[in-house]
Amino acid sequence: MKTTITGEYIKEMLGKDIREDARKLLEYRDIVLKLGTIPNAEGSAEANIGNTKVLAGVKLGVGEPMPDKPNEGNLMTSAELLPLASEQFDIGPPSPEAIELARVTDRGIRAANVVDLSKLFIEKDKVWNVFIDIYVLNYDGNLFDASTLAAQAALSSCRMPKYENEVVIREGGLGKLQLNNMVTSCTFGTIVNKILLDPSGNESLFIDSRLTIANDEKNIRAMQKGLGGVGFLPKEVDMMMDITLERSKDLRNIIKKSIGE
Which three-class secondary structure state does DSSP give residue 204? Predict the structure, then answer.
């Protein structure tokens, strides 16, 4: 009954261009970014968008290169939807939602060429592996943007270990992991033919279609449509890309401020 009443209320208010939390249709909730939340990681960050809290940690280890890229390091992204974050999440193997979250975050980072994998070559048959682990601490909608924000901030603050005499050194005067770029994403949802930026948890229950757009400072780098449902008109996609390029300036500034740039 509560879900039905909530859905009717949300849809009724959206008919008047009003959201349940009084935001504008294309406005983010408050965003807070915290660095260094995992002391033993090479880089870490917690991104809060409203009440959604996502933790990302970056760890580097030495391994073998991929057979088709013998002179490049490897990038691997995983996501875990912790049961403590929401009653919707269960204990067990990665759910389809967790796999999608990891893939969408990974795709934006790869498409923007954020990590310079060519700089991670050590010697024949040895390269650096970059592991990005994402943990959802509290769910209130829009995990994609929070995860990308946390992952990028963790990478931007990541220390680069040394490899000497077959030993990984993680202490002392370490430099930063060399990056090529900075990526953020903006996620939109449609409810009763209204396009919303940064859907909240309640809004996410009633979304017909979802689109996540990842970009760097100059270009759109990746898109992911979710939930099936209705499609988007070309003019709607154009509008969402324009909003993404504009809103991403604020997201990048949040990251830059957190890392002292």
Answer: helix
Q: Is the pLDDT of residue 120 over 50?
A: yes
Cα 149 to Cα 8, 20, 68, 243: the distances in Å are: 32, 24, 30, 17
- 135: CB partners within 8 A, 6+ apart: 54, 55, 56, 57, 79, 80, 82
Sign of the torsion formed by the C-alpha atoms of 146, 30, 8 and 15 = negative
**How distant, in Å, are the alpha carbons of 23, 104, 201, 234, 254 from that of 251?**
18, 17, 20, 25, 5
- Write out the H or E segment, with its range, that includes residue 164: strand 162-164
Q: Rounded CA gap, 45 and 35, in Å?
A: 4
Superfamily per CATH, domain 2-258: GHMP Kinase, N-terminal domain (3.30.230.70)
Structure tokens at 163: 């490899």
Containing 46, the helix (H) or strand (E) segment is: strand 43-49
Which range (36-45, 115-124, 220-229) has the least confidence? Answer: 220-229
- pLDDT confidence of residue 1: 40
